[in-house]
Specification:
The protein has 461 residues and is an alpha/beta fold. The chain has one domain: TIM Barrel, CATH 3.20.20. It has 15 helices and twelve strands. The protein binds 4-nitrophenyl beta-D-glucopyranoside. 4-nitrophenyl beta-D-glucopyranoside binds next to loops. 4-nitrophenyl beta-D-glucopyranoside (PNW) binds next to loops. It catalyses: Hydrolysis of terminal, non-reducing beta-D-glucosyl residues with release of beta-D-glucose.
Length: 461
């Protein structure tokens, strides 16, 4: 029996982010970012870890490209470090920083791999944070300038661009919960940062009308635990999903969100024209999916849930984790990805890309030169199956990227939680890379004839 031919092949890829892999934080004129500052503060990152060395990918770009090429993937998603390109956030351009990404892009293209660039994966120049960071409208203006500089240099070779990665994390974990850089803890600050992040995205759209421009969101299916949790679940959905999707699709914030987030009714923050600029500003949506969210109602007098701070204004929130979990404690539920893709396609009508999916696993040790990470293979196989079901149900999903190529700096978790297809030995001076069983498994999936190889430019219209 021959399988029905897909209208287009699903592009397969692997993803990374600058601060998590590059190291070389003081090289070639790079300025400090908020993650340098944050991880240097005692108690912020598990084990006192930081990205000073990370995977040393800044110096080992050829090794990374060879690993990507060895997978045979269609595409590689990476991020550009703003403080390497504009060490002062705006103004003076550091060409050595741009040279690095040019080397990477040219190497990928020579290897037959499509580069997919993310402009902001959380490494904000510290000088901009000192002027208010994402609480300041001027940061959105600086972002547009930065996007233009990078696009000017690489736009002839990079066809698929994303502005932000997971603005929910940048805004709410960074400014409201304080568990990510810059570590601020003010409920209203999360909403302000969210608006300015979206504004930076929307203005970039206007500044780069020719670019095939998307935004990467960590949307999540929100499944209330019981009928009495419907209301808190709606609040979680507002802050995790609708605060991004509603402006993109409708050019509006919805009533419930405005009730939770009165900041978004402040005419000094949300100015005439802002929401109009956001409407229709994405050509595609990237979805990073790891786990569903199961809100519950907290018992009266109970302790606030540790993640309450990331959902400011959602009173009485509790969160339940069911079933099997990965090593980072996140529930494994591939049906969440299937539902999310179908639902997001219905809501937006836009092409979708799974820009991240993967698992932190405990079976990640090198034994006799091998890493037998069967838990990760199971996770990835089941989630790829969910993508295919969503495609058959009509969701326009163009690509699937595994998070991540290398074991790397996992933000507040430091190096303790590993998501890589490739093991990195942090005790060896050369940071020895060992492809895991999941690396070889994924290479087989890419080569499988039923999947087909996506052509270069697949993510473009
Ligand atoms: C995403 N949370 O981060 C990022 O895009 C990646 O850089 C990261 O390595 C990956 O997922 C795995 O964590 C998140 O606490 C970090 O809810 C933390 C959270 C969510 C996403």
């Amino acid at each position: 029996m021959t399988a029905a031919r897909d209208p287009f092949p699903l592009a397969l890829g692997v993803a990374t982010a600058s601060y998590q892999i590059e190291g070389a934080v003081r090289e070639d004129g790079r300025g400090p970012s908020i993650w340098d500052t944050f991880s240097a503060e005692p108690g912020r990152v598990r084990g006192g870890d930081d990205g000073v060395d990370a995977c040393d990918s800044y110096h080992r770009v050829d090794d990374d490209i060879a690993l990507v090429e060895g997978l045979g993937v269609d595409a590689y998603r990476f991020s550009v470090a703003w403080p390497r390109v504009l060490p002062e956030g705006r103004g003076r351009v550091e060409t050595r920083g741009l040279d690095h990404y040019e080397r990477l892009v040219d190497g990928l293209l020579a290897a037959g791999v499509e580069p997919v660039a993310t402009l902001y994966h959380w490494d904000l120049p510290q000088v901009l944070e000192d002027e208010g960071g994402w609480l300041a409208r001027s940061t959105a203006e600086a972002f547009v300038e930065y996007a233009g500089v990078v696009h000017e240099r690489l736009g002839d070779r990079v066809t698929s661009w994303a502005t932000h990665n997971e603005p929910w994390c940048a805004a709410y974990l960074g400014y409201a919960a304080g568990v990510h850089a810059p570590g601020r803890r003010e409920a209203g600050a999360g909403h302000r940062a969210a608006h300015h992040l979206m504004l930076g995205h929307a203005w970039t759209r206007r500044a780069l009308p020719g670019a095939h421009l998307g935004i990467v969101l960590n949307l999540a299916p929100v499944w209330p635990e019981s009928p009495d949790a419907a209301d808190v679940a709606d609040g979680v959905d507002a802050i995790r999903n609708r605060v991004w999707l509603d402006p993109l699709v409708d050019g509006a914030y919805d009533e419930r969100l405005l009730a939770i987030a009165p900041e978004l009714t402040d005419p000094g923050l949300v100015r005439p024209g802002d929401l109009e600029a956001m409407k229709g500003s994405a050509d595609w949506i990237g979805i990073n999916y790891y786990t569903p969210i199961r809100p519950a109602r907290r018992a009266d007098g109970g302790e606030p849930h540790p993640e309450q701070g990331a959902y400011p204004g959602v009173e009485g929130l509790d969160l339940v984790v069911r079933g099997p979990r990965t090593d980072i404690g996140w529930e494994i539920e591939p049906r969440g990805l299937e539902e999310l893709l179908v639902e997001t396609h219905r809501r937006t009508g836009l092409p979708l890309v799974v820009t991240e999916n993967g698992a932190a696993c405990a079976d990640d040790q090198v034994v006799d030169g091998r890493v037998d990470d069967t838990d990760r293979i199971d996770y990835l196989r089941d989630h790829l199956g969910a993508v295919e079901r969503a495609r058959r149900a009509g969701a326009d999903v163009r690509g699937y990227f595994v998070w991540t190529l290398l074991d790397n700096f996992e933000w507040a978790e430091g190096y303790a939680k590993t998501f890589g297809l490739v093991h990195v030995d942090r005790s060896s001076p050369s940071l020895t890379r060992t492809p895991k069983a999941s690396y070889h498994w994924f290479a087989e999936q890419v080569a499988a004839p039923a999947r087909g190889r996506g052509a270069a430019g697949l993510l473009s219209p």
